[in-house]
């Protein structure tokens, strides 16, 4: 359109472009995967889990349910301003026998009368202090294939829609989604964080939950080793890691497997922790691969801005 001799963008085109930019920001934030702090606190626990430096995993969140108590019963990964990636079985636990409409966005509160929330920028969850804060979950969607393949970790994945935006800051960041088809090779070292159970804490006679966020380095295992140790292992939807360097445990479910692809500087959430094979003391851990579900994740976020 020409106005006063100048080319002017039609209003409808401008609105559509603004909508497109808005949707792109929801689906794939322009900035993601940057860690402002990355040094670890000296090891305080056995089994190779270490206390993470506060806010060094700025996309990790604790998932809370009003039905389960004031502790992070699962973990999650902030992937956009209003979206968190977690495990489907974490939602099933919160539903407490209520039936969920799989593959559809729904409200936990409408079904159960209870609330879900996530805690952002937290470190010592037993003494909530700034910069940590809570954000209530508005909606939940479980992967549509989960009920048919609940025994397969590959579909143990869900999305939480928050009721307000979490902005990027010095203590909060979004993890990048991997490129579809990203395939990290066996032996690649990734990281995971969480407040999950410590199976053998020092000076304690029994397993215990840590007060502070822990982190652990984890090695991706080869497909043949995964298949020989995990019944029904599906390499197209699932990855497994060797627990020799450190095992995840109860309370770590839903947390991300965070990896730096070769020659990259941005961290991606390569998997979502589902389950382990040997009671947190060794063996193999299973994750739902996110690279094969990027289209589903983006479709959900685009349809529910």
From TrEMBL:
It comes from Dibothriocephalus latus. SUPFAM superfamilies: Trypsin-like serine proteases. It comes from the Eukaryota. Residues 26-302 form the Peptidase S1 domain. Keywords: Disulfide bond. InterPro entries: Peptidase_S1_PA, Peptidase_S1_PA_chymotrypsin, Peptidase_S1A, Ser/Thr_Proteases_Immune/Dev, Trypsin_dom, TRYPSIN_HIS. GO terms for molecular function: serine-type endopeptidase activity. This is Peptidase S1 domain-containing protein. PROSITE patterns: TRYPSIN_DOM, TRYPSIN_HIS.
